[in-house]
Amino acid sequence: MRQITKRAAVLAAAFAVAATGGTAAASAQRAGREPGDCVAVPGADCGTVRVPLVRSRPELGTTTVAYAVIRHRDASRPAKGTFTVNPGGPGDSALVYAPGYAATFAGLLKDHDLLIVEPRGVNRSDPANCGAGLPLPATRDGFVRMIGACGTALGERRRAYTSAEIADDIDAVRARLGIPRLDLLGESYGTYLMTVYAQRHPDRVRSAVLSSAYPLAFDLWARPNVRAANRAVRLLCERSGGACDGDRVLRDVSRLAGRLKARPLRYTPEGGGPARDLDDTSLAAIVYGAASGAPEDIGDLPAMVRTALSGDTRMLVEAAGKAGPMSGSALRRNEEQEFNVAHAAAVMCNDYPTLWDRKAPVRTRLRQYAAGRAALPERTFWPFGKVAWTSAISDQGDACIRWPDRDAPAQPTNGPFPDVPVLVVSGDLDPNTPTESGRLAARQFRRATVVEVPNVGHVAEREPSGCAAGIESAFVRDLRPGDLSCLAAVPPVPVRS
Q1: Rounded to a whole number, what is the distance in angstroms from the first to the last CA of the chain?
Q2: Which residues contact residue 298 at a Cβ distance below 8 angstroms, ignoring those fewer than 6 apart?
Q3: CA distance 230 to 429
Q4: Rounded to whole angstroms, how far apart are CA atoms 55 and 336?
Q5: Does residue 377 have a pLDDT over 80?
Q6: What stretch of H or E contains 8?
Q7: CB 203 within 8 A of CB 16
Q8: pLDDT by residue (tens digit) across 282-331?
Q9: What one-character DSSP code corresponds to residue 113?
Q10: From the CB of residue 310, how many other CB atoms can be counted at a distance below 10 Å?
Q11: Can you say how many angstroms the Cα of residue 13 is from the centroid of all Cα atoms in its chain?
């Protein structure tokens, strides 16, 4: 759940990349491709398939879907299986992360092939364009209007970008390559996508690993997320050796939110651009993003809040300058990441649950949303207000309230789902896709195991020891989690004093 781009910076930091581009370029040339046509991983084969733009409407034409297969290293024997990955988003490029996946799952690649399918509408798969891009608007209202305008600009093509269509694209590639069954590995939004794949193609699934998972039916008010943010702060301080007290930090956050609501700070985003307001919604986005991002971000949180309350707002403004939170949304820009806003908006607004009647006109939706939020207890969203928190996360709340399609079919949230082994992995400091949501995702399957990784936020594979990635690799290989003893050695996050 994702922040429109769920985790660009997370994977970039997690993967401390592997293979050199020279070897991959030579391989591409030997295969008759120009250098750069394939991914920078030795032994990779790339290709494309043409698929219907909207399978129920053949008159709309076709689109291209790109993919890469990274072959197992032990060429003396056939591959034991094929695992396929998706890094999330929606809107993230899967192919961009191929070198990172090859490094992170190097052990599994000894005898398993890796299939990476670029989501339609992103990067090498006919990129979608609606005129929207990064950086996003400075206010929540501007962001919501941008999403609505994007849907209008896409026109009939907007129904092409759904998790169901992407899942069917993955299966089209699987069929082209003659792979009987896949081991699914989804991260963040990728867990939603892989669940949809399992729902639509149950006979083609051998197992599933869902890292930083959430269920198909989730809470658009983001109540599990605020509970998880509070829990993350308390766990951080419990493990800090006395460097902070969680309850005190949360009380300080509440005080600072009140001050910023009454008198927002003006700041300039990193890299320049017009000045923005840093209000209570911005603070909620910063706290949410800190626990979702790199470990040092949440480790800086107690000092950032304490110094801001004492009148020194440098750390706070620095955090805002890096994250560029809207007074209503917190999307980070990553220059190395191929991210497509049009794809993200369409998938989000086509698939996710809504807090209003999809078939109603916008004026009615706005009234329904306002009435629903007014009925929520303010205390539920402490240490923030309910308006601040429900406006802080880009893919929740009212993000899609102006989406123009009133008659599109909704993504089913019920099964049936395949009766296969499933591993759900959650970081215990993650408010983005918290363990609470991971357990709900696990309940969609009969044979699911939940593993919580301590001292890790969003996407546990970023943990540098390789513990989480090793557990996941063992699960794909043996269909059981195996030895979890490495979890006890994951170190606590350092807290800045």
Answers
A1: 31
A2: 232, 233, 236, 290, 291, 429, 457, 493
A3: 9
A4: 32
A5: yes
A6: helix 8-14
A7: no
A8: 999 999 988 776 666 899 999 999 999 999 999 999 999 877 776 634 33
A9: E
A10: 8
A11: 15
